[in-house]
Amino acid sequence: MKFKSPQTLYEIATLIGAKSVGDDNFSITGINEIHVVEKGDIVFVDHPKYYSKALNSAATTILINKKVDCPEGKALLISNDPFRDFNKITKHFNPFIQSKDSISNSAKIGKGTVIQPNVFIGNHVEIGANCLIHPNVTIYDHCIIGNDVTIHANTVLGADAFYYKNRPSGFDQLISGGRVVLEDDVDLGASCTIDKGVTGDTTIKEGTKIDNQVHVGHDTVIGKKCLIASQTGIAGCVVIEDEVTIWGQVGTNSGITIGKGAVILGQTGVTKSIEGGKTYFGTPISESREKLKELAEIKRFLKDRKNA
User: For the UDP-3-O-[3-hydroxymyristoyl] glucosamine N-acyltransferase non-repeat region domain, which residue ranges apply (predicted)?
Assistant: First the structure.
């Protein structure tokens, strides 16, 4: 999530009540999670296991819960609760604004686009030309939709990421400040749910077609010309490269990559990153030919044992 204008280290430290290490005028341009950070970003870290990764990431300001040596060219914000203070920053620069109309006055809707009854379109949404939005679709604030997109009834774009910290008092939500971005010629079936990014974008690229009742988690990127069948569940921070086919009732782990042109057969559990250009099946996932051979061997073994 980028700020509308650069902030200084001093301004952010004052906002969250943290101690700063570095030049008070050190420039900060946004906040992001570790997997998408860029120069100018703040990243937060609150576990020693990830200190090194955060300090050596592309982020130039690290919000951390321990005083450590500051890497050259970077700054620190030292907090007793980085998770809480990351939320403070998100709330300050991207506050929730209540909608008073079914279609916000700040929404931009392109020529030839048809909006059916009972659609909700939030603040600062952008929808391109010649789209068709069917009844009861909900499009949260800041979503971006390209040209020639079709969205079927009851689909929801931009709900919060499923991201919580377990505290003694209960689960504390990491506030989502990202967006959903649909490129041109995307089709979404009925009752799909596409969560927004925590700080970045959940993106579905040009020409991809998604069936009914598919869930896409936060910060996932789905490539061009993919086909995804019904009841598939895609976790957060997944990268699906171009021209991937995913059949029904597939589930994935978070943070994995599915290579270009892969085909995943129905009811497969994608538990790890997989190469493109191959067909996969089963849980744990294997190439389909190998998995079918395994099943045939098991069947043969059981038959032989029964006849022994």
Answer: 26-91
CB-based burial, 234-258: b 16+ in 10 Å, e otherwise: bbbbbbbbbbbebbbebbbbeebbb
The burial of 296, by beta-carbon neighbours within 10 Å (0-12 exposed, 13-18 middle, 19 or more buried), is given as exposed
Could you give the 3-state DSSP secondary structure of residue 283? coil
Cα–Cα dist 20/183, whole Å: 40
Catalytic residues: 218
CA atoms of 302 and 308, how far apart (whole Å): 10
SS3 65: coil
Within the chain, where are the H helices?
9-16, 51-55, 82-93, 288-307
* Tokens 């709900």 -> residue: 159
Q: Residues 153-171: what's their mean pLDDT?
A: 97
Q: What is the pLDDT of residue 168?
A: 96
Task: Tell me the domains of the chain and their CATH numbers.
Answer: 2-93 (3.40.1390.10), 111-289 (2.160.10.10)
Whether this model's pTM surpasses 0.85: yes
E strand intervals along 85-217: 108-109, 114-115, 120-121, 126-127, 132-133, 138-139, 144-145, 150-151, 156-159, 164-167, 170-173, 179-182, 187-188, 193-195, 201-204, 209-210, 215-216
Of the pLDDT bands very low, low, confident and very high (cuts 50, 70, 90), residue 284 is confident
Residue 40 CA to residue 29 CA, distance in Å, equals 5
Structure tokens at 69: 């040596």
